[in-house]
């Protein structure tokens, strides 16, 4: 029976654990299945995970959780992943496979290279839930749901030293939970996520900070509407996680920030000119709305392209698990880490 160590029992890790448990309910198809052992410094999170069936048992110590584990999943922001890699490295079995869920990848790959033994494979992972999913980040593992991973884009950034077998195992795990594996370079991942996630979080926080700092905050709160609520949804993830995403993705964030500042400067220039007809502002709004419609109607245009996860004849969840740690080749090979 394969032992899976789930280190960090937050919303993402909890959802992944539940999805794996659901996928392997059919013991006949699973060929014996696996056991998920969970660890979190927050004992309440461990109890919640055990009660909800996220894990089969909880470990009292980190070393106990990873002992004899063939697959280790680390859930948490980048700095926590780095610390976990440092702590578990000496206790991992040769041939073990390690993956994570942090939303920055270049730094986690560097930490994996520094802290993991050469005979252990690391595949950086980052599940991105589909836009239509409702996520309550405030409640942690209590908000975990297996369906959050359905149709998620699951980014995979293998370390250069990762074996084909390890890459195929993690790809199989992604399929098992209903997500779509998307292979890309770690720096490319971080550059893209800076634009779609990290900077939007910071902009929303900056807007909230500025508004709340106003002497009129008491009245401003009264005049907020649903648009303001949607803006503030962007800052519901833990502040520490947003902070670490920014610090571990500085250069990409600076690039995107410079672009946004350039646009805002043009907006300011038009507003400060009493003779301006605001043409740039109107064009910007119309182009932004057109882009929004394109995003809604044509979100995935990767059909047949490298990195696309459209594959015929994907194995059943039971077959995926049966082939874990057995060479199995998918139609697409991931790019090497730069």
Biggest sheet, in brief?
8 strands, mixed
Order of helices and strands: EHHEHEHEHEHEEHEHHHHHHH
**H/I helix tally:** 14
* CATH domain topology of the largest domain: Rossmann fold
The dominant shape is elongated
The side-by-side strand order for the widest beta sheet comes to: 3-2-1-4-5-6-7-8
Per CATH, the architecture of the largest domain is 3-Layer(aba) Sandwich
Description of the molecule:
The chain is an alpha/beta fold and 338 residues long. It has two domains: 2-184 and 307-322, NAD(P)-binding Rossmann-like Domain (Rossmann fold), CATH 3.40.50.720; 189-297, 6-phosphogluconate dehydrogenase C-terminal like domain (6-phosphogluconate dehydrogenase C-terminal fold), CATH 1.10.3660.10. It is built from 14 helices and eight strands. β5 (97-100), α6 and β6 (121-128) form a beta-alpha-beta unit. It is elongated, with a radius of gyration of 22 Å.
Short description:
By secondary structure, this protein is α/β, with parallel strands linked by helices. Helix content is 48%, strand content 12%.
Task: List the defining traits of the structure above.
48% helix; disordered C terminus; 14 helices; Rossmann fold; elongated; alpha/beta; 6-phosphogluconate dehydrogenase C-terminal fold; 8-stranded mixed sheet; 2 domains; 338 residues
Task: Set down the secondary structure blueprint.
Layout (H helix, E strand, L loop, with lengths): L1 E6 L3 H13 L3 H4 L3 E6 L3 H9 L5 E2 L3 H5 L4 E4 L3 H11 L8 E4 L5 H10 L5 E8 L24 E6 L5 H13 L3 E4 L2 H27 L4 H6 L3 H8 L5 H9 L2 H23 L6 H19 L19 H6 L16
Parallel strand pairs: 1-2, 1-4, 2-3, 4-5, 5-6, 7-8
Antiparallel strand pairs: 6-7
């Amino acid at each position: 029976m394969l032992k899976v160590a789930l280190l960090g029992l937050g919303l993402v890790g909890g959802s992944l654990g539940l999805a794996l448990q659901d996928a392997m309910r059919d013991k006949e198809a699973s060929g014996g299945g696996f056991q998920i052992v969970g660890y979190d410094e927050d004992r309440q999170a461990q109890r919640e995970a055990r009660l909800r069936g996220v894990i089969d048992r909880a470990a009292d110590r980190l070393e106990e959780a990873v002992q004899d584990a063939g697959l280790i999943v680390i859930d948490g922001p980048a700095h926590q992943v780095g610390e976990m890699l440092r702590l578990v490295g000496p206790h991992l079995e040769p041939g073990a496979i390690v993956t994570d869920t942090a939303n920055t990848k270049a730094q986690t790959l560097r930490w994996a290279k520094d802290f993991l033994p050469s005979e252990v494979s690391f595949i950086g992972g980052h599940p991105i839930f589909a836009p239509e999913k409702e996520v309550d980040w405030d409640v942690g593992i209590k908000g975990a749901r297996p369906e959050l991973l359905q149709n998620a884009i699951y980014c995979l950034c293998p370390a250069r030293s990762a074996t084909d077998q390890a890459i195929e195992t993690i790809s199989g795990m992604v399929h098992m939970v209903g997500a779509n594996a998307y292979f890309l370079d770690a720096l490319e991942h971080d550059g893209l996520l800076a634009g779609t996630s990290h900077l939007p979080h910071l902009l929303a926080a900056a807007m909230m900070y500025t508004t709340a700092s106003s002497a009129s905050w008491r009245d401003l709160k009264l005049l907020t509407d649903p648009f303001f609520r949607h803006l503030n949804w962007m800052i519901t993830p833990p502040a520490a996680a947003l902070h670490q995403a920014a610090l571990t993705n500085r250069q990409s964030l600076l690039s995107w920030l410079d672009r946004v500042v350039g646009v805002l400067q043009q907006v300011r220039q038009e507003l400060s000119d009493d003779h301006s007809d605001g043409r740039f502002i109107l064009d910007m709004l119309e182009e932004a709305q057109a882009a929004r419609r394109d995003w809604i109607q044509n979100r995935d245009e990767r059909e047949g392209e490298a990195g696309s996860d459209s594959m015929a004849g994907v194995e059943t969840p039971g077959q995926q698990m049966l082939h874990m740690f057995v060479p199995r080749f998918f139609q697409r090979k991931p790019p090497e880490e730069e």
